[in-house]
Amino acid sequence: MKTGTREAMVLSEVLRSNACMIDHYNLYMTGCQDQQLRTILDRQQRHTLDSFQRLIQMMQSHGLDTSNIPLPTTMSVTAGGAQTTTGAAQYGTQWTGRQYGQQTGTTSYSAQYTAGSPAVGTQMTAGQPGTQAPTFNDRTISEGALLFHKSGAEINTRAALESSEPHIRNALTNMARNCIEMSYELYNYMSQRGWYQLPTTPQNFVTHSPTQQQYPPQ
């Protein structure tokens, strides 16, 4: 497959998944009850939207068609006191997006966690046509957001492996790393509330350390 065609295919998949996540976050924040979770979701959505816009502009700077890429319903975001829109200045071929976890302007990408049991939203119930859309509780919202980032890390990594253009490959690698950071942020939030407990080690589980490894006689 020729260079350019491959990049267009993998970038289209990445952007579609990002647009879907951004729009789902709108739904999540509508039903979110815990202010701390809402802050995390808002921060992550802003970061993902910024990455989406930069990747669109990178495609355009490489001459790739973006007319069929589905856009999120919200294509502007205020971050660090500045307004970012689809029509912002061109970024060229060099990826200049922020690493998730860095501080830029007045926006801090590092969450602070506090102990306690937050209030949760109403339980999701099966709806009938014409009825009000169901809401999710905070545990379901955080679980869904976590799965989005786990999937995003896989999609971006696979896309980076399939891309031969250095700047695009670097951008996708950074996006995969950011998905990992955002998923870890949600994991910490869920773990502190007892929503993500690791399974206990079975009593009959056998582990072999390097010092215990047995080698066949020489």
Automatic annotation (TrEMBL):
Main location: other
Keywords: Sporulation
Compartments where found: Spore coat
A Gene Ontology biological process term: sporulation resulting in formation of a cellular spore
InterPro entries hit by this protein: Ferritin-like, Spore_coat_CotF-like
Pfam family, one: Coat_F
Domain of life per record: Bacteria
PANTHER family: SPORE COAT PROTEIN F-LIKE PROTEIN YHCQ (PTHR39183)
Similarity comment: Belongs to the CotF family.
Protein's name according to its UniProt entry: Coat F domain-containing protein
Species in which this protein is naturally found: Desulfoscipio geothermicus DSM 3669
Taxonomy of the source species: Bacteria, Bacillati, Bacillota, Clostridia, Eubacteriales
